[in-house]
Design a protein that fits this description.
Blueprint lengths: L8 H5 E4 L7 E8 L11 E7 L15 E10 L6 E8 L6 E6 L10 E3 L2 E13 L5 E9 L6 E9 L1
Parallel strand pairs: 1-3
Antiparallel strand pairs: 2-10, 3-9, 4-8, 4-10, 5-6, 5-9, 7-8
Length: 159
């Protein structure tokens, strides 16, 4: 029996948070941004489904933390050297603001590039993530000010 290629958007946007892979990655999802403009009203939503129980052996309130990484893909013509982003996860942690440096000390685009696109990855070490229970959590990301030439933002969680 042939399966039809029907994929529901919620399935695409929800990845299961399960046992560690060899690299320790438990969530990895990219969302495209309209390169002509990304404004504070254009929030990106990342649905993280936690299916495993918190690890036993940890005291209450001391669940294991996950490392958040962000990878920004942008055009070489990116006009600013800094990309300030707001991060909000509905797990009870307060909003976090990061400023990602997309240019080197001379103001030229920084990161890995292919043709006119650059990608730069950042570990957000100042904002460890934890989940106290199973369920679906939503990470919201939006820019501090209107941005142009940003193509996508990838969110990765690692053990």
């Amino acid at each position: 029996m042939k399966m039809k290629k029907r994929i529901f958007p919620t399935i695409l946007s929800t990845l299961l948070l399960t046992a560690c892979s060899q690299e320790g990655i438990v969530y990895d999802h990219s969302a495209d941004v309209d390169p002509s403009g990304w404004t504070p009203a254009d929030t990106l939503f990342y649905n993280v489904r936690v299916v495993e129980e918190p690890m036993s052996g940890f005291p209450v309130g001391k669940e294991p933390f996950y490392q958040l990484s962000l990878a920004v893909r942008y055009k070489r013509s990116f006009p600013c050297s800094q990309l300030p982003l707001h991060l909000l996860l509905d797990n009870g942690q307060p909003e976090h603001i990061v400023s990602l440096s997309l240019a080197d000390s001379t103001g030229l685009p920084d990161g890995d590039h292919w043709s006119t696109l650059y990608t730069k990855q950042f570990d957000v070490t100042a904002w460890p993530i934890h989940f106290g229970d199973t369920g679906t959590y939503v990470l919201k990301v939006w820019p501090d000010t209107a941005q142009q030439h940003i193509c996508s933002l990838t969110v990765t969680l690692k053990h």
